[in-house]
Amino acid sequence: MLQSMRSAAKYIWIVLIVAFVGSFLLYETSGLAGRSPVTTTTAIATVNGEDILLTSWQNAVATLEQQQQQQLGRGITLDERKTLEDRAFDELVTELLLQQEYTRRGITVTDDEILQAARVAPPPQAQQSPDLQTDGRFDIQKYQRLLASPMARQSGMLAGLEAYYRNEIPKQKLFDQIASDAYVSDERLWQIYRDRHDSTQISYVLVGQSALTDTAVTVTDAEIAQFFERNKKRFSRPGRAVVSLLTVPRSVTSADTVQAKTRVDRLRAEIVGGAKFEDIAKRESTDSVSGANGGALGKGGRGRFTPNFETAAYALKTGELSQPVLTPFGWHLIRVDERKGDTLDVRHILIAIGQSDSSATRTDRRADSLASIGGSQEDPTLFDKAAKTLGLSPASVVVFEKEPLSYAGRYVPSVSAWAFSGVRAGETSDLFDSPDAYYLARVDSITAGGQQPLAEVKDDIRRRLSKEQRIEKLRPIAAQLATAARASTLEAAAAQKGLSVEKSAPFARVDAVQGIGQFEPAIGASFTVPVGQIGGPFKAVDGMVVLRVDSRTEAARPAFEAEKATQRQQLLQSIRQQRVDEFLVNLRESVKVADKRTTVLSALRRQATP
């Protein structure tokens, strides 16, 4: 089988070679060669002395981008591309670190291991394939017949499987070494079960900061410095840019709404006249994701859709076609294919309300003028000239690295990713397009992200520590309340202090309780104070708590024993995954990755400029 895999692999390599040659010729003829050190062998990162090449990263990004475009049914924004770029980069770094770890540990994979895995451990994609299922379940015999068929050899499937297992088997061996000794005792399982199934109900009094007559506390610089050193990771900030933004809105008029309604009426008449709903959805629906599936929105209960849509859908009989329904997304035609109680299997055709052709043409011309005057420029005055020429008012907005920009209640695509792609202050963007408007941006200032110095976070730390100290000053007041409650009742003691008694609903150790918080000392104490007795003071999220346990119910051991095996399997899987995740994090943090992407992309963009 391996020989067949390698034989089929030549087709894959032919495709890769053609793609590489095409990219190389493009590079050679673009005028980039000789003008800049950025080439097909330029490294965008170095990990333990080994390089990750620009071409490897670009190919990984292109693969992810193609997958996402297929899922979304549209092109992706720069924000979405930036997310994919980071994901591809992290995967390449992790893969290189794993390869280095395999070498260090002497982990290898043999041909026999690949053959055995291919026969009995099919990859997830194969197990999910409808063609390899019988009665809705994966059929291993169908899969094995496929492996032995000429189609597997001719299509390159065997070569793909070999590559998959050469990557996955060493990874599994490494992860087994890391996590194979994970163990959970019965007592540990019982404690976890009790944390979720023991319950208690309490009456409590929260002594808040309003009870203090003297709120003055002193937080020393030494305490602030000590807190900062213990919690440095909390004080890492993203990059920040101030951007001027010009907007050419795609204003929709009442005439545009009427035009969309006329269109949806025409489609409804076509369906009533005998056309298939599914075909019309594929051809006409502006919801490209459901449209590609004949308008299918799947099965589900109430609460999935906007109120107008849901009301119309639940009023329909099975197979009935709705009248046009208006929602914030546009006009819909709805059909219910199946109903079981409140569960509906629904299809729809969406006609979004957009500009008419004449309005869109005027908007497009205005946006083209904006782009021709001020777009993709290094001279910041051209941005101002474009604004003045078109009578537009620039808005000053702040964007943060890896956070898409929202302005005036709308998502503004691509501006944030562009601002942190290596551009310099004063540069203007390309014209960015969205369903609502066109946008042109200029970066006015950029502040790099990273570790914040102590001086910048000192006041925040002081406020945090001050709050903790003020809460601690409440302890003597709460202790007096607890003493009085033990001598009389919690209600009488609270009334004497002008405080109120709150009653909780039943809760478990892992639950959050209003007024107390989650995982606070007061929560744990609610399970140790004897029923009917007063306990406290105990720290809560915003003060001190004095409580009385009103009732407590303990978990049932027989119910635990019935679930123990399943619970152990789930917990072991979780612990093993946690160990693997921690190993990968530590592996990544143990090396300094020289990330050169911003510098390389900036140089590449400039050398492509005539």
User: Biggest β-sheet: count, sense, barrel?
Assistant: 4 strands, antiparallel
Number of helices: 23
Overall shape: it is globular
* Unreliable spans: 1-35
CA(first)-CA(last) distance: 52 Å
Offer a quick outline of the entry.
This protein is an alpha+beta fold and 610 residues long. Helix content is 51%, strand content 19%.
Characteristics of this structure?
610 residues, disordered N terminus, Chitinase A, domain 3, single chain, 23 helices, globular, alpha+beta
Description:
The two termini are 52 Å apart. By secondary structure, the chain is an alpha+beta fold. The chain has four domains: 2-177 and 594-607, no CATH class; 199-232 and 460-553; 239-250 and 357-448, Roll (Chitinase A, domain 3); 254-351, Chitinase A, domain 3, CATH 3.10.50. The strands form eight sheets. The chain has a four-stranded antiparallel β-sheet with strand order 18-5-22-21. Strands 12-7-16-15 form a four-stranded antiparallel β-sheet. Strands 8-11-10-9 form a four-stranded antiparallel β-sheet, sandwiched between helices. 22% of the residues are buried. Mean pLDDT is 87; it is low at 1-35.
